[in-house]
Amino acid sequence: MFNNHHVKLAIAPIGWTNDDLPELGGEVTFEQCISEMALAGFSGSEVGNKYPRKTEILKKALSLRGLEIASAWFSTFLTSKPFEETAKAFIEHRDFLHEMGAKVIVVSEQGNSIQGKMEVPLFENKPVFTEEEWAGLLDGLERLGDLAAEKNMRIVYHHHMGTGIQTTEEIDRLMKETDPEKVSLLYDTGHLVFSGEDFLHVLNTHMNRIHHVHLKDVRIDVANKVREGKLSFLQAVKDGVFTVPGDGVIDFKPVFEALDAARYEGWFVVEAEQDPALANPFEYALKARQYIREISGV
Asked: What is the mean pLDDT of residues 50-66?
């Protein structure tokens, strides 16, 4: 698979040091993180909270290890704040990523999000946008897409647990009511399965909009415990709901086959936020790398 496509494999630093839960991996240095990424056989990374923001420093550290920046997360607040506030921060973020050579910008709407609230049950309190909020989101994303295009980049929307764009229905509406030239989709296996969606249906339905892929597996027993026990997203992460491809319930072979058939080009990013004290990041990075090589040939 992927013999004639331009596909690259990255891994996110969130398995080493967690942005939402800084106590997870707090002792892990930036240098350890990227060194182990390279040693495990990855060629790219997304940006974590310990990464230098001065591009010349970051470029040198990455080039020493043969790594590139695939993208970085950006929180939008298009449903809860004036567009100008999001746009100002977005432009700074866009320019940083452009300087680092990235082609896509990961965006996720955090207006009314509960993903960062430790005590708020995930499934019972998921936000649902009003029509007014939908209007602000759809218009705002297209305007951010225009700003990205100024640097020959594109935004890829990250559907995410605990936010207003989580379910198949919400993803469908987002794709239907935005311009394909301005708004693309980040496809995340783990968030779809955790939410209870048909991950292959979403993949095949929106294949032509997908320009970034997060490869994340799910421990279904933990996911069920979260739903039944009315736990929060952060509690789910601490309990190990996510893991690397090949270590959970998801069969990634049909995912790779569909992406190969569609001639997908871009990054695959392994992303599995776990407690590094319980799941050694380097060990799990190696596990993911071997599994992806065996299943996809990448």
From this structure: 97
74 vs 146: CA distance, rounded Å? 16
Range with the lowest mean pLDDT among 17-31, 116-130, 168-182? 17-31
Secondary structure (3-state) at 282: helix
Angle ∠(244,32,75) on CA atoms, nearest 5: 60
pLDDT tens digits, residue range 207-266? 999 999 999 999 999 999 999 999 999 999 999 999 999 999 999 999 999 999 999 999
Checking phi first, is residue 25 left (phi over 0); if not, alpha (psi -120 to 50) or beta? left
CB 156 within 8 A of CB 187: no
What pairing do the DSSP bridges indicate for beta strands 242-243 and 217-218? Answer: antiparallel
Give the span between the Cα atoms of 258 and 64, in whole angstroms: 34
Question: Which pLDDT tens digit goes with each residue over 106-139?
Answer: 999 999 999 999 999 999 999 999 999 999 999 9
pTM over 0.90: yes
Taking Cα atoms as reference points, which of 263, 252, 136 lies closest to residue 210?
263
Measured distance CA(87)–CA(289) in Å, rounded: 36
Report DSSP letters for 160-225, one per residue.
-TTSSS-SHHHHHHHHHTS-TTTEEEEEEHHHHHHHT--HHHHHHHSGGGEEEEEE-EE-HHHHHH
What domains are defined for the chain? 7-296 (3.20.20.150)
What is the reported pLDDT for 18?
86
